[in-house]
Amino acid sequence: MPSSALTAAHPLKDVTSSDSALRRFLHGLPGVDAVGLEGRAASLATRSIKTTAKAYAIDLAISMVDLTTLEGADTPGKVRALGAKAVKPDPTDRTTPSTAAVCVYPDMVAVAKEAVAGSDVKVASVATAFPAGRASLDVKLTDVREAVAAGADEIDMVIDRGAFLAGRYLKVYDEITAVKEACGTSARLKVIFETGELSTYDNIRRASWLGMLAGADFIKTSTGKVAVNATPANTLLMLEAVRDFRAQTGIQVGVKPAGGIRTSKDAITFLVLVNETAGEDWLDNHWFRFGASSLLNDLLMQRQKLATGRYSGPDYVTVD
Length: 320
Prior knowledge:
about 10% strand; alpha/beta; 12 helices
């Protein structure tokens, strides 16, 4: 897999040499045509999927879910149950794929790791004072190191939105690179922008490039903790960014929409966006994820309906 770090010889490396250089680069990116972006996202959402393709898409979506619990009331028992569900989402049908990962707070990483042991399911952990990110860099890095030491395969960090919105881009860049270093070689880094707080599509494009320049393995829309989370339009914009970044650097970066994706129809819409924008190379859980808690249940119910012709209903899947 391509490295997520730019080599010293790469032309884009110079854009992070100073705050002014980074600002010039980010503000020199093409402006986003909001009407065009939203129109294309809406158009792609109308694509119809036939039965065979729908079955494939549902299994693909299941395999891309980061099954998530990020609540103050999380217990070891809840995390163990979530891990068991991630490994075998439908115990009555062993052909059902496992999810990509379980996503938990750092103090639950060891429990999650034990719950998915022996499977391909990864353990992701939010860190860096999630979801607000209001902490010192030392605290954030300690958060990351503890999660990695406990066995986290992936770290989902939040950027300092206050610094970004104030135009302190190099501060945000330096934090991401420091967190990337704290991940070491064992954990991939997902960088969360909280797109609902960035106000404009231009800011989302700038944040996407900033995250990728700093070494993100994934760029992620949201924490799921604010009013506006993943949307087809903001995810389409981020897919364009990873496509264009790979074209310029040869480095492939993943995308993770999170928050508000609840139904199979929603998930299939996002898969269409991936295929039509970034391309088939991203149609794999190494490069695309859904951050979700309730989505998996709907995918399982739709899968059962395709297999049996009957809609089993929510009583036939576990309540998370």
